[in-house]
Amino acid sequence: MSLVGKFATVGGATLFSRVFGFAREMMMASALGVGPVADAFNLAFRFPNLFRRLFAEGAFNAAFIPLFARSLEEDGEDAAKEFASEIFSTLFTVLFVLTALAMVFMPALVQTIIAPGLSACVDDPAASAHFIPCADRYEITIAFSRIMFPYLACMSLLAMVSGILNAFRRFFAAAVAPSILNFVLIGVLAWCWWKRADQQTIGFFMSWGVLVAGVGQLLMVTVAMRIAGFSVRLKRPRWTKGLRRLLVLAAPAALIGGITQINLFVGQAIASYKPGAVSILQYADRPYQLPLGMVGVAIGVVLLPELARALKAGRLGEAQHTQNRSLEFALFLTVPAAVALFIIPEPIIRLIYERGAFLPTSTRAVADVLGLYALGLPAFVLIKVFSPGYFAREDTRTPMLVTGLSAIANIVLSLGLFYVMAERGIALATTLAGWLNALLLFEGLRRKGLWEVDRALVKRSALVVVSSLLMGAALVGLLIEFRPWLQTGSGVLHQALGLAIVVAVAMAVYFVAAFLTGAVDRRMVVGALKRRRRA
């Protein structure tokens, strides 16, 4: 399968999951709005998600895959199986201890890390139709966090099994597994709607749904691994050379791989000082995560094992070509997505969320945040492109320093801008920190001679920007023409039809401009389509 075909496989599976994620968020917004229960659920869910990205997906995809790939290439499958079993056993033990400690000390974690703003909460019954006293908000955040924290263990083990599948170039099962979470939560929300449950009950059932979904996802990839003819066994953890090397690589890689989640987590912790701000950030994050997940995750999953194999085999020219074409692919899809989300965030948010407990005032607040997030979309996808250039060479120190610097910048900017622009300041800080991270990662690769930008990349990148600006101009005109269809009160059907027309015409303008100007390699696209038809 070609590189574009592999991106399409992972991106398609991720898109499938994100579409149902939209449905989940739509139902949640209708049921909970931007009230205290929504804040509590989002705060509690973000914490295990942060550690999942830091110590599971980021660290294992960055550190485990190159080591596992090398073991497969040099020592054979039996040695790779022994190495994987060593790591699995150690990871399982560490996760068990971590989960037990978190369950015991969760009140302190909520008060100092997850939601420090709850300690400054002041009761205001007039602030919300679904008023909950501050003391109760604190207690339900603790309860939700305790229920959902074991999800971290399931996702960490899932990340390792997914790394094994990716090393064998089997990408689909790991990419589609997150859909289980969306299916479970959609089912929970539908059942709560049928039972007309109150908001706190909905929050508790959703928390249990997250845990059940975590177990289901882990089972799915484990079965896929067994079907692939590979297995790992649980044994007594031992300090081995392979484990030591993994930790040396994984410690900084954990920080690097989870930079987006670090920025979002820091933002939500600061946002906890303003009621509703946490939920506003979370609802804005969902549309922004669709292109980020579809393109960024696909590139991150496919590019690392491809680079690792090419470098281990000494095929340096192939590695350079893979990096440049991956960057082209990222820019071709993310630049127009960023332009579109910046220009038309409000109609998108209104169509997705504005019903039930989600009011027009909430639409405007979430749209403002989404527009600022959109400006950082290309940056966070570029991080996914640049990071494997270091990881595949087992260099995690350089990107660790870069990521640490950008994380510090994000914290400082978030603290300063929050008091000026509230949640919009946090979104702007996240975007600025993302661009700083991406630019420093690229400059490091260029200075070390690890990335040689070819002429085709420069030319097509410039033409992608031109094509995206033409599409943006078309969007502005379409927004004026279809404004009556996209306003509050026009009805969901009219909004959906109007937005579909606007998006379809804008996409047509972009793709026509891209193909006419040569912003996309037409031979590569035609070749990929022919290969997929033959398959």
Tell me what you see in this structure:
By secondary structure, the chain is an all-alpha fold. 83% of the residues lie in helices and 0% in strands. The protein has a domain of 220 residues. The termini are close together.
Mean pLDDT over the residues: 79
The helix-and-strand class reads mainly alpha
Gross morphology = globular
Give the count of helical stretches. Answer: 22
Taking Cα atoms only, what radius of gyration do you get, to the nearest Å? 23 Å
Strand content: under 5%
First CA to last CA: what distance? Answer: 9 Å
Number of strands: 0
Give the biggest beta sheet. none
Helix-strand string: HHHHHHHHHHHHHHHHHHHHHH
State the low-pLDDT regions, or none.
Answer: 527-535
Share of helical residues: over 70%
At a glance:
This protein is an all-alpha fold and 535 residues long. 83% of the residues lie in helices and 0% in strands.
Using brief descriptors, characterize the structure shown:
535 residues; mainly alpha; globular; disordered C terminus
